[in-house]
Amino acid sequence: MHIQPDPAYASGATRFVLVADNDANNLVFMSMILQRFEYPACSANNAQRALEMATVSAPSLIIAEMNLRGMSGLELMGRIRQEPVTRTVPVIIMTRELTPELEQQCLQEGAAGCLNKPVQADDLYRMVHPILEPGSRRRNVRIRTRLSVIVDGAPLDFDRGECAVMLSAKGMYIRTLKSYPLNAPVSIQINFYGQIVWVDARVIYRDTDRAGIPGLTGVGLQFQNIMPRGGEIIRRFINDEVTHGLAPGWA
User: Fold this and answer.
1) How large is the C-alpha radius of gyration of the chain?
2) CA dihedral 157, 212, 231, 186 (to 10 degrees)
3) Does the structure show a pLDDT above 60 at 250?
4) Do 95 and 114 have their domain in common?
5) In angstroms, how far is CA 160 from the centroid of its own chain?
6) Which of 150, 179, 174, 173 is nearest to 162 (CA)?
7) Which of the listed residues 98, 121, 189, 244 has the most CB atoms within 10 Å of its CB?
């Protein structure tokens, strides 16, 4: 599995995330997922350590567990706001007990957002990406893949290089021998290792150069309508691909 980086920011300034959590497994999980998103990360296993690291290193973003040892995540955020070097650093609160009331309280006290644990990879990406890369238009993690797809009733020919090579929760990029006009509606079936998802989509761009193989056209598809539970299957597939190789149960 490979995360497809945003080319507009691949060579940008270093962005650094501090993760604070009592749970060592979750610290490793969160740090590794952020690294897979190409965001450097370090961790602190209690509130005091997080405060010390933040004031010394001035991270671009802090993600803090609500129930930290020493003080709550909200109390940590308040202390961070008192330090000149970290006063404007965004803070995301994560908890296993997120409710609408708690989320509203966190936002009112100045949190940049809230994450429900166990944290899903795409939720994490959607939360941190706009903060760390505010000029980017991307809002969903995009992975490289090779999936069997049927387009308008015709299966893509794997043997000739046709397949889906990138996927997000909102669309996909396919290599195909067929030419599709811009804005053309297409009906697709995606095989997620035995689970078939039906999607109505439209062509939002086409580029022979991006296909990477002579004779094939690269076609970007935006999902318009997904079958019931199809979005959940796509989301779970992306999360499983992003977290592949990490110990089960982390987060």
Assistant:
1) 20
2) -60
3) no
4) yes
5) 31
6) 174
7) 121
